[in-house]
User: Fold these one by one.
Assistant:
Number 1:
Amino acid sequence: MMRGLTGAGAVAIACALTIAAAASRDPQDQQSASLRDAGALLQQYVSDGKIAGAVAAVARRGKTTWIATAGFQDLAARQPMRDDSIFRIYSMSKSVTAVAAMMLHEQGRFSLDDPVAKYLPAFTDVVVRERPDAAPRAPARAITVRDLMLHTSGLEHRTSDLYRRAHVRARDITLPQFVANIVRVPLMEDPGTRFRYSEATTVLGRLIEIWTGEPLDRFLDDRLFRPLGMVDTGFWVPPERRSRLTTVYAPADGALKPIEIEEVPFTEKPALVEGAVGLVSTVPDYLRFAQMLLNGGELAGVRILRADTVETMTKNGLSDAVLAARGGSMGWGLANVNVATDTGEYGWDGTAGTIFWNDPAHQVVTILMTQSVPANPDGLRQRFKALVSQAGGE
């Protein structure tokens, strides 16, 4: 639902806003021409009216070496972006949920090859319908926890026509109701036969509740967010933080206009705690999470996962056949990340314009957050990543 308009004057002010670069203690990083160019690129996108604003950060060898802001959280209010602006991170939530699940895997709470129906009996009777005109049939094998994490379960995406027509997902239903809804819709194919990006990670969130006996949001807060110092990450934005919540914009009639993606906004506590898409976060918070992964499961003396677990999670986990069908050069890891099979880089993005990637070879973490639909206007991510990569050896 569109709400209000933004005028050319607001964009002009955004054009004049200077980039705020954060203090690096490494002069070489601070003076990096490539990073200056990366910051200038963000400013150019603001000036051109392609995004309202952005926050970005780079960490090298465990130290945050650069953070920059450009543009506005809210164009109408002329509220500048700040280092700790809060963003809807959508599918970057998936990696967080995957880490939480693997913490429990290390404790022996489940096996990756356990059938999901072992813990969620509603999955016992799922059927496959590969074409609309085909008769439903039993799947060739059961969906496993591994299938949920690798998106080889046969489940569909939340925005698919199929799931929309069946009203599978809404932020005002409970997680058990979501599970009841999703099993009523046939699988798209047999488990294990195809990578299909899906709602599987929200099902994984419900499994975490069953394995722990705790609500997902409480488990994440107690076991992950607080230990890592992720002070602004959660499933909604409470009143005291709302002044830092960014507005989502979409282009319309030659300008950027605010858009509400959800019927239940992120300023309200949702009934549905979604492991797939439900989190809000900041660049500093997510940088700590990503750095923990790059460090092999540890940050500032706090160990979240074993190093061998993280290594397994951040490698391609797809079979050769499924990988080849996906395109061959880009795999998928249990951490719910894309994995470049040639370089070992990994990361993922979100519907509303956020992205992270880790480069193990150069020990670099990069985060870029905007609030934009489309999520990647005019190839911003690729252009920004190229400049950060150029700075990787400096």
Note: The longest strand covers residues 63-74.
Number 2:
Amino acid sequence: MYRFLLTPRWLGGLALAVAAAVAMVFLGVWQWHRYEERTAINNRIDAADSVQARPLTAVLARPTVAGRAGPGGGSDISWTKVTVSGRYDPAHETQVRGRTVEGDVGFEIVTPLVLTDGTAVLVDRGWIPPAGDALGAPEVPAAPAGPVTVVGQVHLSESRATAVTRRDGRLDTRRIAVPRLAREMPYPVYGSYVLLTAQTPGADPAFVPIPIDHEDAWQNAGYTVQWWLFAAMALFAFGWQARREAHGSPGADGSASPGMGAPAVRAHYPERRPGAITRARAARKARPLDRVEESDQKATTRSARPPE
């Protein structure tokens, strides 16, 4: 009954269905890994207030070349709580324009913190409003002049780097792309920056803390289930079509019509017998004729009569 599955057309269809199902399974696995990564990030965000801060040098690889950023690390270190000590370098401070906090547009101030070994890490000290309109130069509180200990969370470098210019005595840019900003620094710079949450001595109250949004991990979980359902549906559709081909699809009257793999059903026609033909002719003769038929019949009879 299912021998038709060994034909080239059905073997090709099976290969296509299996290939599509395997691809969808792998897409689901990839989405599941994204779900695990985002869940781990959310856990680090939630645990930041309760866990002990780790030394920055234990989390990020040390940079070695002046004017270059070191390795930035991956998502496995994103939002890790760290602590680092050094001195701020306001001469290479950066104002990052067009940043929104609670619906207001302003600036984030990023200041290099130079460690005792001569390397530096960029510290986002917080958000401040513009002076006047949204593009007005902000009034930035001065960074502490002495030694500073910073506690914060690791933020990966932002993508799509924009141009860096000088404005109001500071570097000015739109995105915190660490490799691009590192070119403006005279020392090696760590590959990720730190979002400040606490500082000793204390941070100026004019700074608004940058809110940290959670990752949408459940979206990836939903995509995982979706791709795996699609894989099951691809195989089910092939099996359903093969069964339909083997048993025949139902016709309009509910009976089974032949499929490609099922034997054809021979149509039945009534037999023609000589007696049936004779009875049909007799019935036509017995039927009353209208005037037109009667006139035609008489004309035919006269034309068939031999001449006298």
Note: Confidence is low (pLDDT under 50) at residues 254-271.
Number 3:
Amino acid sequence: MPQTCGAHEIRWQSEEGAIKDQAAGRLASTKSVPVAMSPRRLSAPSMPTTGPLVDSFGRVHTDLRISVTDRCNLRCVYCMPEEGVAWVPRSEILTFEEIERIALVAHDLGVDSVRLTGGEPLVRASVTDLVARLGRIGFSDLSMTTNGSGLARLAPALAAAGLNRVNISCDSLKPERFAQVRRRGELTTVLEAMDAAEQAGLIPVKINVVVIAGINDDEIVDLAAFARDTGRVVRFIEFMPLDAGEAWERSKVVSGEEILARINEVWPLETASKRAVDAAPADRYRFVDGRGEIGVITSVTRAFCGSCNRLRLTADGAIRNCLFANIEHPVRDLLRSGASDADLALLLRQAVWAKLAGHGINDPAFLRPARSMSMIGG
């Protein structure tokens, strides 16, 4: 459904529209954009044991998110409780060698993009060594999502090890508001991290902003101005039910449609990408006057499950085929019991094949994941 702001129209790419762009029964190649064939299975096909990582809806999975730790030095309100966090025992966390082996198997199955997440990945000791291991595998894109608190110091080493780019979380440009949302850390540290990332060549620098009604939604236009002034891509993310405190309420969700409307009233926007040709989670929009772009991630109000090409590896060794999944596929025990690469590949295929058509947030029967964002990996 189109949204019109002033004289400029912003069209949303519906999941159904993306589905119609694919011929019935045709699977995408590993280099094409994976798109679901149908919102539900019309038959019960057999899981392929060769070729790319494909699910039963025809979505080809080429993106792996790897959580390197469940630990974090911040306590953001949309992710972690302020106190009383129970960390996973270190003996249960995957070693760098184990992560590297899974990444190698995934690469052989057509995965060509890896993002390191946490918790906060930079709190794990010697994380640059892991980056170097993964960098040697040959992924076309190796990135990291970080809160920025330790990035200024490590940016040059990460770039030298093979990291391509970073996403930095920054939910407010006001120091007091920043402290309210993060409950630890300082805004100046994160702003310095952005500069350091650019100087090290970790570009493009993308800024992740979780928008929460009544907390930071009054800064939407200010953050868009920040994108225009710095050339950094600010990505506005709808508040999702993944907070450990379970304080999420639909009334706190600021829709992508509203975010775009507010910005478009000040600086007209135009579509920069379409879901049918871009599997990235953010819908991208350019400022009509050429002063940069923004992204909007509408996980709640306009799910992009039909083009999802991602699977996740948790820090304690579980494969998840969806951020909101309530079923995990344990790979750590396989690794530690002498499993072959063929065994690992089969588990990855089974995990992807079991993926549902969508996460179902807007379904009355939706059950929020048992694990919060920091335990899953963002």
Note: The longest strand covers residues 141-146.
